[in-house]
Design goal:
- It is a single chain.
- The strands form two sheets. This protein has a six-stranded mixed sheet. It has a five-stranded mixed sheet with strand order 1-4-3-2-11, sandwiched between helices.
- The protein has two domains: 3-105 and 240-260, 3-Layer(aba) Sandwich (Udp-n-acetylmuramoylalanyl-d-glutamate--2,6- Diaminopimelate Ligase, Chain: A, domain 1); 110-231, Udp-n-acetylmuramoylalanyl-d-glutamate--2,6- Diaminopimelate Ligase, Chain: A, domain 1 (3-Layer(aba) Sandwich), CATH 3.40.1390.
- The chain has eleven helices and eleven strands.
- α5 crosses α11.
- It is 35% helix and 18% strand.
- By secondary structure, the protein is of the alpha/beta class.
- α9 links the parallel β9 (201-204) and β10.
Amino acid sequence: MKVCDVVDFLSGLSGPVRPDTCDTLKAGSLDHEVHGIAVTFMATVEVIEKAAALGADLIVTHEPTFYEHTDHPAWRDGSEVARRKQDLIDRHGISIWRDHDHAHASKPDALYRGLLTELGWWGKVVPAGGGPDLAPIVVDLGGQPLAEVVEHVKRVLGMHAVRIVGDPNVRCHRVGIAFGGGSIDFGSQLAPWIEANDIDLLICGDIIEWTVVPYVRDAARLGFGRALLVVGHGRSEEPGMTDVVRELASHFGDSVPVMLVEAGEPFLYF
């Protein structure tokens, strides 16, 4: 089995993606034989080291390896950090494939499905409407107290701390989930979407502090009982990569080991 076989399989899991897709080979060769597959949110140096130690010579990463969307920032050629990272990749004979656009183009979105499966909420998805294209998914948590939701999310996502905006005592019936960069992409469209869908709690990845954050603060202050739970881009998307692991393992698992190697929480809290 070669890298190109894995790439063809992943590409076939979704519909078409844009012609200038970022899903390309970032290191190695499509003709390399594969002996183990590591799936991750981001191929950091630590992830590369762990993958090599586990015998994986193909890394499937969701986000860039070299610090910019296309993996080729203008300053990369002169960067000692980038050079030493490339040397590490080459030394272990690792190929790296990015699976971003195809993962999000699958129906349903592979990372949404994976995240909600890990949280135990896939069966709680309810209809939603209004707002932006690719609008957040809504789940019904039946009025669960915010504190219980927070502890559950922290445990499943492996986080020591999260950020809360708004009403800390809200009861969570309709919960919107805008993971990854979605909460930035939707920008000011999130506030009308929250209102149109009667959202009690929005769980999000990246966030803009001058759009939905002040909206939720004001809504809570005015007695509307709304809250925002900010977990960050990586921790909201990496659990969803378990869906990619399951797909690869079901197809290639008899031939090579397939494993999730987490990039993990990037922040230190003082």
